[in-house]
Design a protein that fits this description.
Mean pLDDT: 95
Number of helices: 6
Structural class: alpha/beta
Strand content: 15-25%
Number of strands: 8
Radius of gyration: 20 Å
Low-confidence stretches: none
């Protein structure tokens, strides 16, 4: 069985858009492209190495695929990430079934992405790791397809932009497997899905008259 693992860089307010550079994704008038760069330190580099330490294939939305395909094949054979990404399989979610994928070892997920991912997860093979792909992630969250997440939270508030979680994500409880802080203040959290959302109450066993009145006003 293959797992779908999300790898995400986010601001403290959950924005994922264009962490790597000002021209990466300026859609919607986003003006803070490249916000991750000033915080990226040796500790964060080790965290990325850990995320890439087990065999994986890439799972990408079309826009992130375009960004990667215009960069990583040209990084040079001595770049460990570039050579790794070049070698492995890239699965791409696109609404255009005729999209030409020129980067080697790339293939589309077809017209029914959810069904295709369900079949891929049943196979033996490397896990499926996302990078970026904010819009595509909403499909994964909505259909409960995510098994694990590496969420790196950077100490910056961006105010607007594409966010890790939009409306409609399937409710789920997460278990924290590990957390590390870099010297620059990035907190890298690793989560695994842990079942349905459980609820409880801090209220008195017998509600006060004031509480009962409050509930009546809500209804």
């Amino acid at each position: 069985m293959r797992k779908i693992i999300v790898g995400a860089f986010t601001s403290l307010d959950g924005v994922m858009q264009a962490p790597g550079g000002p021209d990466e994704d300026p859609s919607g008038g986003f003006r803070h492209g490249g916000w991750a760069f000033p915080f990226f330190d040796e500790d964060m580099g080790k965290a990325v190495d850990e995320m890439f330490s087990e065999p994986f294939d890439l799972l990408l939305g079309r826009k992130t695929y375009d960004i990667f395909a215009a960069h990583w094949p040209y990084a040079g054979a001595d770049d460990p990430i570039g050579s790794l990404f070049d070698r492995i399989t890239k699965y791409v979610a696109t609404r255009d079934p005729g999209m030409a994928l020129d980067w080697q070892n790339s293939r589309t997920l077809g017209t029914d992405v959810v069904e295709t991912l369900g079949e891929l997860k049943k196979e033996d093979g490397p896990n499926l790791l996302t990078q970026g792909s904010t819009d595509f992630l909403q499909t994964l969250f909505r259909h409960g397809l995510v098994d694990e997440m590496y969420v790196s939270v950077f100490p910056v508030i961006l105010g607007s932009g594409k966010r890790l979680f939009g409306d409609g994500a399937a409710p789920v409880t997460l278990k924290l497997l590990g957390s590390k802080a870099s010297g620059s203040g990035i907190v890298v959290n690793r989560y695994v899905s842990a079942g349905p959302v459980a609820t409880g109450s801090f209220e008195f066993e017998q509600p006060t008259e004031a509480e009962l009145e409050r509930r009546r006003k809500l209804s």
